[in-house]
Amino acid sequence: MPTPxxxxxxSTMSSATLAHDETHDAHEGHHTSFPIDNRxxxxxxxxxxxxxxxxxxxxxxxxxxDSHPKGPGPKDIFEVPLVTGGTAVLLFSSFFVVMALxxxxxxxRKKMLGWLAATIGCGLFFMxxxxxxxxxxxxxxxxxxTNLFGTSFYTLTGFHxxxxxxxxxxxxxxxxxxxxxxxxxxxxxxxxxxALYWHFVDVVWIIIFPVVYLMSLRS
Amino acid sequence: MATSVLEQTHVxxxxxxxxxxxxxxxxxxxxxxxxxxFLFFLIGGIEALIIRTQxxxxxxxxxxxxxxxxxxxxxxxxxxxxGVMPLSAMFFNFFxxxxxxxxxxxxxxxxxxxxxxxxxxxxxxxxxxxxxxAPNGGWFGYAPLSSRQYSPGLNMDFWVIGLQILGIASLAxxxxxxxxxxxxxxxxxxxxxxxxxxxxxxxxxxLVLLSFPVITVALILLMVDRTFGAxxxxxxxxxxxxxxxxxxxxxxxxxxxxxxxxxxxIISEILPVFSRKPLFGYSAMVFSSAxxxxxxxxxxxxxxxxxxxxxxxxxxxSLATMLIAIPTGVKIFNWIxxxxxxxxxxxxxxxxxxxxxxxxxTGGLSGVMHSVAPADLQQTDTYFVVAHFHxxxxxxxxxxxxxxxxxxxxxxxxxxxxxxxxxxxxWLMLAGFxxxxxxxxxxxxxxxxxxxxxxxAGLGFELFNMMATVGAFLLAFxxxxxxxxxxxxxxRNVPAPADPWGGATLEWTIPSPPQEWNFTVEPVVAExxxxxxxxxxxxxxxxxxPTLDSGKGIHLPGPSxxxxxxxxxxxxxxxxxxxxxxxxxxxxxITIVGFLLTAVGIFKxxxxxxxxxxxxx
Lengths: 219, 617
Ligand code: HEM
Ligand SMILES: [Cu+2]
What we know:
The structure holds 2 protein chains of 2 kinds. Chain A is mainly α. In chain A, 75% of the residues lie in helices and 0% in strands. Chain A is built from 7 helices and no strands. In chain B, 65% of the residues lie in helices and 0% in strands. Chain B is built from 18 helices and no strands. Chain B has helices spanning 2-8, 17-21, 26-56, 65-99, 108-130, 155-183, 196-228, 241-275, 282-296, 311-339, 348-371, 373-379, 383-413, 419-445, 462-492, 530-538, 562-575, 589-607. In chain B, helix 5 runs antiparallel to helix 6 (155-183), helix 6 (155-183) packs antiparallel against helix 7 (196-228) and helix 10 packs antiparallel against helix 11. The longest helix of chain B has 35 residues, at 65-99. The two termini of chain B are 17 Å apart. The interface between A and B is large, with 55 and 69 residues. The structure holds protoporphyrin IX containing FE and copper (II) ion. Residues 253, 256, 299, 302-303 of chain B line the site of copper (II) ion.
């Protein structure tokens, strides 16, 4: 005998039909095998993959950090106070985005928008810092291919910067939605996903900061 | 009533071109994956035949040495990235939702994007032939051979950029199927009740997620070297060519498990059905698969014994490699245990499954021989290696995928492939395959190098090469027989029953081919081999399809153009890197157009209601 439809099945179907107007891929409102949303699981698995991406870039940097036969090396150009500032800003932004998410979940629009704006500001500040840093290094004589230290430094931090840019862009689109009033507590997940990605980008920098800036100064 | 379901479900108009281009139905996507991958497989096969014809006799000059390099590079690249991987993806797409009792994958539009990125990336790579600049540095792209200095033309740019594009397709699919399998299982289908193929697919996706970023970075570094004259891999600038080999094989070894694990899964579905016995040692199968994948990350350097890593590294990687034989052996014993005492039915899928076991054992044994570093130093880069990896890739993956094709064809297309022609296909392929690749062991042991353009007479290579070439044509003929079988089947169009083999898994409870919504009633599972259990309880051989009488509609996502737009955007973005540009302005206008197209596509996609294009209901 095939299993007859349980009442649970039928109710899932109707809740799926109710979920029509939402912007999502299919199946929001269907049951999931684990008590975690599909999109969250997807972001987590993507982040797992990204970990390997940065691990490979960081390893490459570590192999080549002392390879600067010509042109400046880490000791000649790194400006630790500046980067410490940028790191702190990024670190705080992770806290800000948690507050914004908190606001979104409570349905507190003002709180959400305020903290979200602060997070986006941090992202923009960090990107500004990196642009300043890159052009400063360039004027100190470290072009992209001057030496392998430079190439691997720019590649690693450049890709991190790209991730910050993508994260900021993502937060901006969520912000835009929120301003339009399209981010009720029921859809706080839209912000949570961006926040997860943002945390990840921050954590990567928390590794890059000591490994790239501090360790290279010691050697 | 079934009709009320139909009315309330927006079934796309079948057959129109637009309906295929915009489809988000995992089954249609699976068929498109299969069709395109089979085409690429044929192209790779033609390349192999030209290689074999060139090598049939000593001192041959059928093709130029330059073209020969392109042939073996594109043959290897094609077979791995455009043949076996997407052929597995066909089965993931079509069958994972059916096997776990789901209506769809977790992200249908992402799924469509994977497909189009893959197809466009594959076309892009093969387009290189038309520009007379096909990749020519080997499928492993060893630096510094692949650097600008030694590969100045566009050839290796096609390879680097093509792989980069294909990697995006794999990663997107990895995220999608990881989520689908973990989160979309039918009620009651615990992890340890999942069909074996679902398990090996899950592990494959984890391998994709963890190994593809490594090759992505390696390709980025190579691209930086080639485009900007950096020296990550060139000794002159302080770079280290060994870094390329490490990064490539950290990806490359897991990749071989990405190619073979789905095959393990397919075989583990087929053997029980045609032995009328549950899979022997299910949990051992699960754990050995996971263990193989885990070890797979620790053995990459066995591809580098001859690079002089030193005795300590050689010993470590030797031992780690030998360890893999243990979980693999467990699997083989379990398969044999499944056959043991079963009432075996030698239908075509079963024949290919048994062929798989025999060929895979042969390939596995020569694999163990390679794990011994001193022996490997003799065998590496000879035809012995070529024999080994074809035994696992062709005798393993392709035999299993063919078994899967015969097994699941009725479910996919609603018709049965012809049994008699299928048996001819099997025996011809088995004979052709062994005649092609077994002699290569001997040619290799006699010292015939791999990737060699030609060889002089009198070294003892002639006989083995002639045998291999004859075998290759026999093998090609067997593929023609397969195509004939498909043609006959499509022409006769005799409907297949829902459950032609007496299957154990959920896909056999629904009609062949399945309706767009898969399951009229979402299944509930209480044990492994759920369909056998239901049949046993009901005392029948095949189950009637349940009908839904609640009158409630089934919600499916509507078709969408945006996945295709995003895929085109990605392609254009990467093509931009091929165009000569100056150091000061590295990103040409084409790159920018591609970027904008991708960005617009993603935004439209994100804000598109999932059923915007579907009739309202
Ligand atoms: C139609 C049957 C096939 C024939 C006759 C064939 C023949 C060959 C030959 C002769 C070579 C060596 C080229 C050389 O070293 O000079 C080769 C290389 C290779 N083949 Fe195949 N092959 C076949 C199918 C496959 C399949 C199904 C796969 C993978 C799934 C595959 C993967 C490879 C790879 C990875 C290489 C190495 C390419 C390189 O060294 O760069 N082949 N094949
Ligand atoms: Cu390996």
